[in-house]
Amino acid sequence: MPNVIYRDGSIRQDNWILVARPAEGESLDIPHQPALIPADLWLAGYEHFTGRDDIGVWFDSHDEPEILGGKVNELPVIAVNFPKFSDGRGYSIARLLRERFGFANELRAVGDVLLDQLQFMKRCGFDTYALRPDKDINKAARCLNFFSQGYQAATDTHVPLFRRRAS
Amino acid sequence: MYVYDDHDRQIAAERVAQFRDQTERALTGELAEEEFLPLRLQNGLYVQRLAPMLRIAVPYGMMRAEQLRRLARITRDYDKGYAHFTTRQNVQLNWPALEDVPDILAELAEVEMHANQTSGNCIRNTTTDQFSGAQSDEIADPRPYCEIIRQWSTFHPEFAFLPRKFKVAVNASEKTDRAAIQVHDIGLQLVRDESGALGFRVHVGGGLGRTPMVGPVIREFLPELDLLTYLEAVLRVYNRYGRRDNKFKARIKILVKALTPEGFAEKVEAEWAHIKDSPTRLTPEAIQRIQAYFTEPDYALLDNATELLAEQRFENRAFDQWLTHNVDTHKKPGYAIVTLTMKKTGTPPGDVTDRQLEHIADLADEFSFGEIRVTHQQNVVLADVRQDRLLELWQTIVPIGFGTANLNTLTDVICCPGGDYCALANAKSIPVAEAIQRRFDNLDYLYDLGDIDLNISGCMNACGHHHVGNIGVLGVDKKGEEFYQISLGGSSHHDASIGKILGPSFAREDMPDVVAKIIDVYVDKRTGEETFLDTYRRVGIVPFKERVYA
């Protein structure tokens, strides 16, 4: 079982499987274990999937989280894919899911997840991270906490530094 | 000037530790080069043609004397004893060793300096008018807003991996724009509405480089408290929808053009509606707190030294010329704003030695409350000089090479480092600047020609702002040979415009002649007090083309 990093730096085993988007003409093949499926396919099969705690969804970096609207909290896990670590769209997707749609369950970063991006991900609302396997998972806790505070409000702190300074 | 508190100091220290860790992992190979690349760029560290290059941030161009002295020491201890003022009000070192950079950052942090986000696909150093706070025609001092933007953009977790670099500039004067805001990704003009409330007119999608554009206005009035939430909305729209498939189409200007300014503005407004009342909305207290750092220095109560200066001018013609060209009026009676031009022929524009940095620090201490500003024309400003000490200041700077009285003239060239230093360049730019400076070495003639912006870039990336030069020079590569293309009619001021290409490019040795012919046409055609730009706009490009290619 692969390991995932939690926002407190702990490392835990995990059994969620990321199901790739089926090719044109093929149907979704869901394994017999907790699975993350493309968000639009979950929505398309909404009647079928609703109420299941072993089905979550994932967004690619160009997907629009708006499609789920108020349904986000029906999902136990939402993952956001970073196809390339330098593709920063996933940070905005995370903040929208958390701050606009009020997603309260597990938000996971998957794909090209590297150590030096972890703290940005944490601040934007991700709480688990599937680190790229060739990276040293034992350094994650430190990389999650390079900075003890940030100037901006984000998902981790709703009070920007200028407001904290004033109080 | 802004002074760090415990929070800023802590963040700066953590940043140094983080970059030290990242550098160590890069040196051991644990971080692949492509993984280290954006990390080091976000710390201003390039790997260049001859050596690494480190770009140090100078927020809105301001520095204290102690910071200049530290820079001087760093150039001696870690580099070859000189530095370079850039067109983005930053300072570059050309030869630091990669493994020394964490130590350099630690040294900088001791004097409240850093290299954060001076490169990379993130929000860069916010720039502004170098005369801010010292002139009488500004709506409000723009520097506190620049500092507010600096803090908000520093390590912004959502916007560290944008499609491309992102530059914000703020201007406050009604009459002029020394910050070139209309050729920035976001240009903010301080304005007041009918009720007198302070806010910003927001330009988005200007920029130079491959597809130069003047940024359209997407909001006529943004109340000052909404500054950060609105910026956040613009950046979020850009981060999500800016093109990432093609580096050359990734700037926000391409998105604004594709959506039309109205379409883009609608998207921003829709996004902003969700976040405008979030905790990121500024408070009057937060603005006042930052404003308190930019209060006036301890000015003496003086009268204008009109008679004294008239006498000194009469006795010394060179001083008279310097006063006319390099000294501006000040909002306070008895004071003046002085620009030291770093444009002595034979010295690459913007280059300073360690000793010169120390000289500037001494000048700041002696004549201008210990502070200076760097300009995007690569000059240095002493913003608060007593009029009755101008002669003494001038006598001090002439021997050290800062007294060249050519501000805003043809030889006050903006010039990128070009092919001598920069790995991106297609052609050298410094020798072209020098050849033109040598050709036009008669100050009387230059003064007669009036204000002319000559801007030179060694490649399409346009660090030398050639598109907005009244005369722009662009280095191009043709089958391994260096040529230079000319454009005319650019401007970076309130009447911003992109220059028009004159025609086929020229060999380097022809450049002084070509510029001389262009100037001849202007001299022939101008009427009365017309500037070069006025004449060009009146007569068009054809007469210039006819003469140059005759």
From TrEMBL, chain A:
It comes from Marinobacter salinus. It holds the Pfam family DUF934. It comes from the Bacteria. This is Oxidoreductase. InterPro entries: UCP030820 (IPR008318).
From TrEMBL, chain B:
Pfam families: NIR_SIR (PF01077), NIR_SIR_ferr (PF03460). The keyword 4Fe-4S applies. Residues 119-274, 409-548 form the Nitrite/sulphite reductase 4Fe-4S domain. Gene3D superfamilies: Sulfite Reductase Hemoprotein, domain 1 (3.30.413.10), Sulfite Reductase Hemoprotein,Domain 2 (3.90.480.10). Residues 53-111, 346-396 form the Nitrite/Sulfite reductase ferredoxin-like domain. One of its GO terms (molecular function) is heme binding. Keywords: 4Fe-4S, Heme, Iron, Iron-sulfur, Metal-binding, Oxidoreductase. InterPro entries: NIR_SIR_4Fe-4S, NiRdtase/SiRdtase_haem-b_fer, Nit/Sulf_reduc_fer-like_dom_sf, NO2/SO3_Rdtase_4Fe4S_dom, NO2/SO3_Rdtase_4Fe4S_sf. Coiled coil: none annotated. PANTHER family: BLR3264 PROTEIN (PTHR32439:SF9), FERREDOXIN--NITRITE REDUCTASE, CHLOROPLASTIC (PTHR32439). This is Sulfite reductase. The lineage of its organism: Bacteria, Pseudomonadati, Pseudomonadota, Gammaproteobacteria, Pseudomonadales.
